[in-house]
Design goal:
Length: 320
């Protein structure tokens, strides 16, 4: 049995670490990424990941940093390898390696948000869902005392603000309470405990505005009578003059064109991140753009949560 387990390497780490039903469609998505960015080096590095061969695996994980977008296909396998390693117990000499792997995984997750015309969007979305819906919830279970050095890597990964942010906030808050009870109460808190505590509190602070925005979004969507009321308001409100950006007071035509471009980006761009950014820009401008309310109402029903959150912010500003 033990020798058989030693054979777990590469993509087998992924299948050994996570339930099969959470991986449906992932292999096909990884293949699509690999086909778009073929790399013999990445294939060799992935095949060398094995929880029972620590030094070579750590070198393989470190080697991914040089592989550009070809390394994206390695993310799920590396996540599986990390989970198996942590499950077997992290020795004193392995903590740096686990921390480094978590940092590498945070970079790979960030890379999935970048535009990539070579990879089908559905494939990127599927790999992203694995990270956000399978791997990240597992990481949250690791936030328990006593403090271990590699937990800084977990906090660093969560700093990407991906996935279920409310679950992240709940886990971080529970971790902070446990740290206080475990270290302050016993007087056993070390400098490293204080450092981990401080980093966790800083991340909770960063999460605050995002959670507030989502609460506004939920409150808005929970009021079905609000949309007809605002549509009626749209029918009777006077059309405001577009805001003239700073430095263009002598160019009202340019300001009008800028406002029209914002409206077009917020309502018509194919990328939900671009639409969300345009909605935030409209809110920053005070929403004084003709048609802003109509665009915001449509965006409030969008599939993308970031776009809905941006719409909620703009709507909240418009109805003040």
């Amino acid at each position: 049995m033990f020798s058989g387990r030693r054979g777990i390497s590469g993509d087998d780490c992924l299948r050994a670490a996570f339930p099969a039903d959470s991986l449906q469609g992932l292999a096909e998505a990884i293949t699509a990424v690999e086909r778009a960015h073929p790399s013999a080096a990445v294939s060799m590095l992935v095949a060398s990941l094995n929880p029972y061969h620590w030094r070579s695996s750590r070198s393989a994980a470190a080697g991914l940093r040089e592989q550009g977008r070809a390394a994206l296909r390695a993310g799920p396998a590396l996540a599986g390898w990390l989970k198996l390693c942590v499950g077997h117990g992290v020795g004193a000499g392995q903590q740096d390696g686990i921390n480094d792997a978590l940092y590498r995984l945070s970079q790979l997750r960030a890379g999935l948000d970048e535009a990539d015309p070579m990879v089908p969007q559905a494939a990127l979305d599927r790999v992203r869902r694995f990270f956000d819906e399978v791997f990240q919830p597992y990481l949250l279970t690791l936030l328990v005392p006593p403090v271990r050095y590699w937990q800084r890597g977990v906090i660093g990964y969560l700093d990407g603000l991906n996935g279920d942010l409310e679950a992240v906030a709940a886990a971080l808050q529970g971790f902070v309470v446990a740290l206080r009870e475990h270290t302050w109460g016993s007087g056993a808190d070390s400098d490293w405990d204080e450092y981990t505590h401080s980093e966790t509190l800083a991340l909770i602070g960063r999460l605050g505005p995002h959670l507030d925005r989502r609460r506004v979004e939920r409150d808005w969507l929970a009021q079905p009578a609000a949309e007809p009321a605002l549509l009626a308001l749209l029918a009777i409100e006077p059309v405001p003059e577009p805001v003239i950006p700073h430095g263009t007071a002598d160019a009202p035509e340019a300001a009008t064109e800028a406002a029209a471009r914002l409206l077009a980006l917020a309502g018509e761009d194919a990328d939900p991140d671009v639409r969300a950014a345009a909605l935030h820009a409209m809110a920053d401008a005070g929403g004084q753009i003709a048609g802003a309310l109509e665009v915001a109402l449509r965006a409030a029903a969008a599939d993308d949560s970031r776009e809905r959150a941006a719409a909620a912010r703009l709507l909240a500003m418009l109805i003040r």
